[in-house]
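Got a spare moment? Tell me how you read both lines of this record:
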Amino acid sequence: MFNIATVQKPAAQALSQDGLSLLSPVDLTATLKLSPNWAQAWDELAKTWHKLPPDAHLKDGGGYRQRRHTCFVQDVTAKVLTQTPHRAHWQPTDYNALHGGFERWFEPIEPAVAQAPAWTELLAGFGRLFAQVQAVDKWFVEAHQFRIDTAGGVGRPTPEGAHRDGVNFVVVMLVERHGVKGGETRVFDAHGPQGVRFVMREPLTALLLDDARVIHETTPIFPNHAAGQQGFRDTLVLTYRANGFQAKT
């Protein structure tokens, strides 16, 4: 189905043909047509990953994950991105056997972040790109700020294992990686053995996925003792769904 060369195509083409696209920081700003000062403004928002609250819902008993979560609706036609009232994150067990089937309430993303022009420009840019691949009027967007740390010796970015999210498109963007080893990203054809494996190392590297066509996971991270400090891996995970938010019925 694909190899690492396929993700170097233009993003919309790669998503249409292969179900995934890997964007370098330069590709990200060019593909989404972000404003010239966007990266500088984003640097200020990236600092907020240093004060995320603990994830209280980890069923493996770990204390390695901190996160915030907020939802948006993007009207693609009207070019409007609107934050929704705070809501729970919910997934069916078909997509998340470990943490699915119950409502998870996380602390919301801080208003200064969720309303910042650099934030809204990024989310809207991804939504416009995905609308080129799948024509929609609206996207229902969930945004997750994640920090996985190695304070306990190991951190698990995807404790549920290889999975799909039950949405149309997924973005995993690296915000910062410090003092860790491991954390290999793996993406596989949902209906076959083909796949790619790589490590995201440079901030603003972004992996884009067609959730119906691929499954994904990231392997555990471990301390890099040469760094002499506690290690962590920060990401922004965005999901775009066409037919409303996933919710308990």
